[in-house]
Amino acid sequence: MLNGKIDLRSDTITQPDDGMREAMARAVVGDDVLGDDPTVQALEQHTADLLGKEAAVFVPSGTMANQLAIRVHTRPGDAMLLDANAHIYFYEAGAPAALAGVHSKLLDGQRGQFTAAQVEAAIPPRDDHFAQPSLVCLENTHNRGGGSVWPLEKIGAVAETARRHNLALHLDGARLWNASAASGISEREYAAQFDTVSVCFSKGLGAPVGSALAGSAEAIARARYYRKQQGGAMRQVGILAAAARYALDHNHARLADDHENCQRLAKGLAKLPGLSVDEAGAETNMVFIDTGKQSAAALAKRLDDLNVRLLDTGPNTLRAVTNLTVNREEIDQVLAAFEQLT
Ligand SMILES: *Cc1c(COP(=O)(O)O)cnc(C)c1O
Hints:
CATH superfamily of the largest domain: Type I PLP-dependent aspartate aminotransferase-like (Major domain)
Number of helices: 14
CATH class of the largest domain: Alpha Beta
CATH architecture of the largest domain: 3-Layer(aba) Sandwich
Bound molecules: pyridoxal-5'-phosphate
Largest sheet: 7 strands, mixed
Strand content: 15-25%
Number of domains: 2
Distance between the termini: 23 Å
Order of helices and strands: EHHEHEHHEHEHEHHEEHHHEEHEEEH
Radius of gyration: 20 Å
């Protein structure tokens, strides 16, 4: 419950609790651009260790983490292979074209996941007509794929193909924490397949701001340069790094609760007439609801009047994302509200 509403619009709507605010207030800070902020440095090292990489850099947003990675791995005019519904392509304001000058070659994945054969088929002959790819991007969990979790073997097959063709691999791991919570495969094990990995502290983990990009020392040194160029280097930013560290230490293990709540919601909704949900699809903290004949926007408005907030992501689609502000009892209240309206 947040401000009297059960808010399932996103896992980005959380607010720092007293413990997190206390950690922010007490953070030892310095000018991070001059290399003086021990709280940022500790978070970067901790994140690199969690992901099994040499280095990490703290950035304001997941978008910036992804876009720095693209600049590190490509040159203007290169092609980049990624799913047609990838956050990097769909929700980042055209940044790959605007900032890196990169041509996005889209793969038609299922629930955001494509195959090694699709990567192979998208690689053109070495011929002056064709933009040559230098990078493949994956997303785990996949946002527009319904929070879907990539199977490790499928990642391995794509990675093997990419490496055979000398392509770099970047993972948009904004919700990698959720993938690990669902599969039991550690973040480090997923990350081992990639050159760079971005992670968000501001989604399910509940920090107010902040993401990181991890990779080799060399890749991250270059990412730092691009971060400065794009205006993302910040001064006494230990205030924010302290919140991110608090989120990792206190809210990581509880992501499984969000997944349980999401399954409970999906199962309950599946029983209601006039709606359909793919129960099996609710693998992590997201469920997409097909509102059938009803307008999703109108239903969202009526739910809001009952203090339940969801996002309409299509004319007949609602999205619910479980998060740390919503407990199990409140999931039952959401189901009761839907029951009243359908
Ligand atoms: C949220 C998200 C991002 C980054 O979003 P920001 O709002 O820029 O922090 C990147 N990738 C995925 C899959 C996301 O869900």
